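Retro notes (design track)

What went well: tokenization of the new backbones is finally stable.
What didn't: we kept losing track of which sequence belonged to which structure.
Fix going forward: every design gets posted as structure first, then sequence, in one message. First example under the new rule, 378 residues:
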């Protein structure tokens, strides 16, 4: 099956008792058993729920994975992954990553004895020199947030394999429509389904998909044991959203390219970050690794101050000032004070994240309205 067909049909079949083409929302905490441990595959809803199963099968299908486990949030999914490690284990992660992941790694797991090295993974040499005997996991986020750098999934995954570590890709920014990490050799994929998969900014969720059965078993153990599970209604909303993923992402990318074109010639724009630009340092890699260049774009202003960025963002009318991304509506945000506020200023600046940096998540509105909105905000 091709991707666009899978987005609608992967793992889905009409419900057995009624023929309903959409999965029912199974609001139940427990399931009747015929005899102790003799049941229809479900015993307690922390462990499993049929609406969640339908969503897990759909995401596994999109990522070409044998299995998927869904969580109540993206960070819940990352938390479960990290809990498969032990004190003394070492993790290599990109230094330009989602602020919530950085906070979870440094404020929760470092104190529990897991060691982290944050490196610029666009330079494979830096990943190599960070490797240790105790390296168990290489955490890849690409495109990176918010500077939209591109990490070579194939090269990093190969390096992980050679050194006995696993590689996991946070595929939230690209979505499975634009990027297929397992095909490139990664061991697992993680999603904040809150973003492109859900696509309508109406639910929070996370997912881990993999064909590594040993890892899947450890993740399922975390689902059952630490319990960051999504409710059935949220699973339904994400599943419903996924059915239009390909159409939404395609239109968002189309709009983004026109917006990038507009921004690239604007006199108040200092630096423009978009993998689709020929001047982008990993433009060629992005073209190879992704189906298209994505619908996220960041830019800094000639007037590099928080004040200038704030003033700009308070003037947009269609672009809503809000955290998050990947919905049908266009959003604007200020990484230095919002998503990346928990990263110390020094660390932020050394990674190239300027005070005036503005990030856009481009939605599927009419692009001429979006450009007009930005124009009047300058
Ligand atoms: C939002 C996000 C997360 C965290 O997901 P939540 O659903 O908000 O918990 C992780 N990684 C990336 C890249 C994100 O954008």
């Amino acid at each position: 099956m091709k991707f666009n067909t899978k987005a609608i049909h992967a793992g889905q079949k009409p419900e057995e008792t009624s023929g309903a083409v959409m999965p029912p929302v199974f609001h139940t905490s427990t399931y009747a058993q015929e005899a102790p441990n003799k049941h229809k595959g479900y015993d307690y809803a922390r462990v499993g729920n049929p609406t969640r199963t339908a969503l897990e099968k759909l995401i596994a299908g999109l990522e070409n994975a044998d299995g998927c486990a869904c969580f109540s949030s993206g960070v819940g999914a990352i938390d479960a992954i990290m809990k498969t490690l032990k004190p003394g284990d070492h993790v290599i992660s990109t230094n330009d990553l989602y602020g919530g992941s950085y906070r979870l790694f440094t404020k929760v797991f470092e104190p529990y004895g897991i060691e982290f090295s944050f490196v610029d993974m666009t330079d494979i040499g830096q990943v190599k020199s960070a490797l240790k005997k105790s390296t168990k996991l290489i955490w890849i986020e690409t495109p990176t947030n918010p500077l939209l750098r591109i990490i070579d999934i194939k090269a990093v995954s190969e390096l992980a394999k050679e050194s006995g570590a696993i590689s996991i890709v946070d595929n939230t920014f690209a979505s499975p429509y634009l990027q297929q990490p397992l095909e490139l050799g990664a061991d697992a994929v993680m999603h904040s389904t809150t973003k492109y998969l859900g696509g309508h900014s109406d639910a929070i969720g996370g997912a881990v998909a993999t064909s590594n059965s040993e890892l899947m078993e450890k993740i399922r153990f975390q689902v059952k044991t630490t319990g960051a599970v999504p409710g059935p209604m949220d699973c339904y909303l994400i599943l419903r959203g996924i059915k239009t993923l390909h159409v939404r992402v395609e239109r968002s990318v189309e709009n983004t390219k026109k917006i990038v074109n507009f921004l690239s010639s604007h006199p108040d724009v200092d630096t423009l970050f978009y993998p689709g630009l020929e001047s982008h340092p990993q433009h060629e890699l992005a073209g190879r690794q992704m189906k298209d260049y994505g619908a996220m774009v960041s830019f800094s202003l000639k007037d590099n101050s928080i004040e200038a960025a704030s003033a700009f963002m308070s003037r947009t009318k269609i672009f809503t000032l809000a955290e998050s991304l990947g919905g049908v509506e266009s959003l604007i945000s200020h990484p230095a004070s919002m998503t990346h506020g928990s990263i110390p200023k020094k660390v932020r600046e050394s990674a190239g994240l300027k005070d005036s940096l503005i990030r856009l998540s481009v939605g599927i509105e009419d692009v001429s309205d979006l450009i007009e909105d930005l124009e009047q905000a300058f």
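Added context from the reviewer: The first strand starts at residue 67 and ends at 71.
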